[in-house]
C-alpha cells in the first residue's frame, strides 16, 4: 500500500499532514510512504528528514497522486473549495483520502467525489470520544486557535494585559471575557491568565464551570434555563431564537465591562450562534477588542468579517481564519500525530479496514464503494 503526502495547495496553508517523526511507526505496519518534494517546507520539515525516517520523496505531483492508495492531507476538497481538479483527475478510483473535508457544509461535493469511487474519511468528523482522543484533530487545532486568539487580542489592544506597578504609575490588568468554554475557550482562558489578565468566562453548558474556575477565571452565570443545553455527546444543543435574544441581552452587561472579548461558541454542524448583534455591540467600550473564533462559521458577532480586522465605533473586531496554520510547526506535529494514529487504527494486514460497526470509523467515513455512506452528510444533502 502506498500512502502519499502531497504539498497543501490551499492559499496560506503552512501545515503538512505527516511529519517525519511519525513515519517509522507507519512503516512498521507494512506500508510505503511517499511525500511530495517540499511538502513539509512551511512546517520546517525538509525532504531529507523524511528520507532519513524511511519515506520516499517524489517531485512529480501527478505521479505521486496516481500511485497513491491512501492520501493524507490537511485540507481536502470541501475544506479547500478550490481543490485542484487536476489533482482529483489524477487519483485512481478506489483510492482513499483522509483529510479535513467540511462534509456537512459541502454535501453535494462529497456526493460527486463518492461518484468517483473515492473512499473519504473526514478528520473533522472523528467523534470526541475517549478512545479517539489521540485522533481528535479538531481539539488539537482548537487548542492552538484559542492560544493564538489571545495573542492577536493582546497585539491589537491599546493596553497591556498584566497588572503593572511602575514608577510612572500603576496599571490595572486587562479584563478578558471568553464566551464559549470548549477546547478553544479553555485554552484562551489559560493563555490570557498567563499574560496576567483578569478573566471571566461563560458557557451555555453549566458543566464547564469547574474547568473554568480551575484555570483561575470567574464563571459567569446567566439567568437562563440550561438543563437541556448539553447533548449526550457533551456538545451544546442548538437553542431557539428567543433563547439567543435573551442570552444576548444578559451578556451585554458583561461585554460593557470587558477590554477583550473572545468568542468561541459553536454548535456542531450548525451556523455559529450570534451572541453579539449590532445593538448589543453598542455596549462595548471604545478601545476594546473582539476576537471572533467562529468567523469561519458565520461569526458569534454579527459585525465580524472573516479574515479581516476592522474598527467599528472604536472597537476592533478580528475574524481570524486558519489560525493553526500560523503555528505551523506545532500544528503539523499535532495533526500528524492525530492522522497517523487514525491511519494505524484503520490498517489491518496492510489494507484499510472499513468496519462501520466501529463508532470512530462509522462517524468519520463519508464515502465508500461509490456511495455517500455517512448519516449526517446524507441528512445535510437533504437540507435537514
Ligand atoms: P467546542 O465545541 O469545544 O466549544 C464550543 C463551546 O461553545 C462549547 O463549550 C459550547 O457549549 C459553547 N456554546 C455553544 N453555544 C453557546 C452559546 N449560545 N453561548 C455560550 N456558549 C455556547 O468547539 P472548539 O473546538 O473549542 O471550537 C470553537 C470555535 O473555534 C469553533 O467555531 C471552531 O470552528 C473555531 N475554530 C476556529 C479556528 C480559526 O482558525 N479561526 C481554528 C479552530 C477552531
Q: How would you explain this protein's 3D organization?
A:
- It is built from 13 helices and 19 strands.
- It has two domains: 178 residues, NAD(P)-binding Rossmann-like Domain (Rossmann fold, 3-Layer(aba) Sandwich); 180 residues, NAD(P)-binding Rossmann-like Domain (Rossmann fold, 3-Layer(aba) Sandwich), CATH 3.40.50.
- Helix content is 32%, strand content 18%.
- Helix 5 crosses helix 13 and helix 6 packs parallel to helix 7.
- The two termini are 38 Å apart.
- The site of nicotinamide-adenine-dinucleotide has 36 residues, from helix 6 and helix 7.
What is this structure, in a nutshell?
By secondary structure, the chain is an alpha/beta fold. It has helices spanning 23-27, 47-52, 61-67, 85-90, 107-115, 137-156, 183-194, 209-214, 241-256, 278-281, 328-346, 359-364, 375-381; strands at 2-5, 32-36, 56-58, 70-75, 96-100, 119-122, 164-166, 169-171, 175-179, 198-202, 218-219, 260-263, 289-292, 309-312, 315-318, 347-348, 351-352, 365-368, 371-372.
Amino acid at each position: 500500500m502506498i500512502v502519499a503526502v502531497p504539498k497543501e495547495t490551499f492559499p496560506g496553508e503552512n501545515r503538512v499532514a505527516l511529519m517525519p517523526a511519525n513515519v517509522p511507526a507507519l512503516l512498521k505496519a507494512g506500508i510505503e510512504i511517499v511525500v511530495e518534494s517540499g511538502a513539509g517546507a512551511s512546517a520546517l520539515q525538509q525532504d531529507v528528514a523524511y528520507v532519513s525516517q524511511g519515506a520516499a520523496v517524489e517531485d512529480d505531483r501527478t505521479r505521486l497522486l496516481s500511485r497513491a492508495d491512501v492520501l493524507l492531507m490537511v485540507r481536502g476538497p470541501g475544506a479547500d473549495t478550490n481543490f485542484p481538479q487536476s489533482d482529483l483527475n489524477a487519483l485512481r478510483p478506489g483510492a482513499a483520502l483522509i483529510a479535513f473535508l467540511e462534509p456537512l457544509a459541502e454535501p453535494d461535493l462529497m456526493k460527486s467525489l463518492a461518484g468517483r469511487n473515492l473512499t473519504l474519511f473526514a478528520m473533522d468528523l472523528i467523534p470526541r470520544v475517549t478512545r479517539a482522543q489521540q485522533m481528535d484533530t479538531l481539539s488539537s487545532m482548537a487548542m492552538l486557535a484559542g492560544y493564538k486568539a489571545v495573542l492577536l487580542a493582546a497585539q491589537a489592544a491599546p493596553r497591556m494585559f498584566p497588572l503593572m506597578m511602575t514608577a510612572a504609575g500603576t496599571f490595572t490588568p486587562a479584563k478578558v471575557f471568553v464566551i464559549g468554554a470548549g477546547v478553544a475557550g479553555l485554552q484562551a482562558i489559560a493563555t490570557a491568565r498567563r499574560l496576567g489578565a483578569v478573566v471571566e468566562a461563560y458557557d451555555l453548558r453549566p458543566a464547564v464551570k469547574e474547568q473554568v474556575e480551575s484555570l483561575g477565571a470567574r464563571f459567569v452565570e446567566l439567568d437562563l434555563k440550561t438543563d437541556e443545553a448539553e447533548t449526550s455527546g457533551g456538545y451544546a444543543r442548538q437553542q431557539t431564537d428567543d433563547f439567543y435574544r435573551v442570552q444576548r441581552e444578559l451578556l451585554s452587561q458583561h461585554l460593557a465591562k470587558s477590554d477583550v472579548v473572545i468568542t468561541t461558541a459553536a454548535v456542531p454542524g450548525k451556523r455559529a450562534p450570534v451572541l453579539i448583534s449590532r445593538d448589543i455591540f453598542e455596549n462595548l467600550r471604545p478601545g476594546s477588542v473582539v476576537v471572533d473564533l467562529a468567523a469561519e462559521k458565520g461569526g458569534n458577532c454579527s459585525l465580524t468579517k472573516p479574515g479581516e480586522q476592522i474598527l467599528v465605533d472604536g472597537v476592533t473586531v478580528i475574524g481570524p481564519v486558519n489560525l493553526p496554520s500560523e503555528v505551523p510547526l506545532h500544528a503539523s506535529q499535532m495533526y500528524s500525530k492525530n492522522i497517523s494514529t487514525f491511519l494505524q487504527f484503520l490498517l489491518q494486514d496492510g489494507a484499510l479496514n472499513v468496519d462501520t460497526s466501529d463508532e470512530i470509523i462509522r462517524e468519520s467515513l463519508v464515502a465508500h464503494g461509490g456511495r455517500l455512506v455517512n448519516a449526517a452528510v446524507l441528512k445535510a444533502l437533504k437540507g435537514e
